[in-house]
Design brief:
The chain has 159 residues and is of the alpha+beta class. Helices cover 38% and strands 19% of the residues. Strand 1 and strand 2 form a beta hairpin. The protein starts with a helix and ends in a 5-residue tail after the last helix.
């Protein structure tokens, strides 16, 4: 009985000290839908991580477009587009050269995302985290889902 109690105490103390850590190999990013616009675009709050603030914001824009194409947006207000534009789970790998070029720095992805809905107050009060190695920013962007869908149809990635 004493051994079991000792084991439980050791497990609790080890877990509270941080010896057991949950490490995620999948680098997920959080995308939250704030609303839909009448032109078919959706307003998203997205997290991005980078070496500095500019890189973090660019990564957040890429994350917003990536979520719209591959993951869908499942958090936030109801009525947002939950389904991704491409439903084939292997499409990213099958068309890797296309999407590597699409998501390259200053690539075509930037034509489908902008800051139209971000107000000066949200720019000042933007979620911001800083560590020695990276910066994480939260940004409000608008993704032109209809234009993005039209582009993917033109490039014969979806029907």
């Amino acid at each position: 009985m004493k051994i079991i109690c000792l084991y439980i105490v050791i497990c609790i103390s080890c877990s509270s000290c941080g010896l057991f850590r949950n490490v995620s190999l999948d680098t997920e990013y959080q995308v939250e839908c704030l609303g839909l616009e009448l032109d078919g675009s959706q307003t998203l709050k997205v997290m991005g991580n980078g070496r500095n603030r500019f890189d973090a914001i660019e990564q957040a824009k890429k994350n917003a477009v990536h979520a719209t194409i591959f993951k869908g947006v499942n958090f936030g207000r109801e009525g947002c587009y939950n389904q991704p534009l491409i439903t084939n789970p292997n499409s990213r790998e099958l068309n890797s050269q296309y999407f590597d070029d699409f998501f390259a720095d200053n690539g075509p992805y930037s034509n489908f995302v902008n800051y139209e809905d971000e107000r000066i107050g949200s720019k000042i009060l933007r979620d911001f985290k800083f560590s020695r190695r990276s910066v994480t920013n939260s940004v409000v962007v608008r993704v032109s889902r209809n234009k993005l869908k039209k582009k993917l149809i033109e490039d014969r990635l979806i029907r």
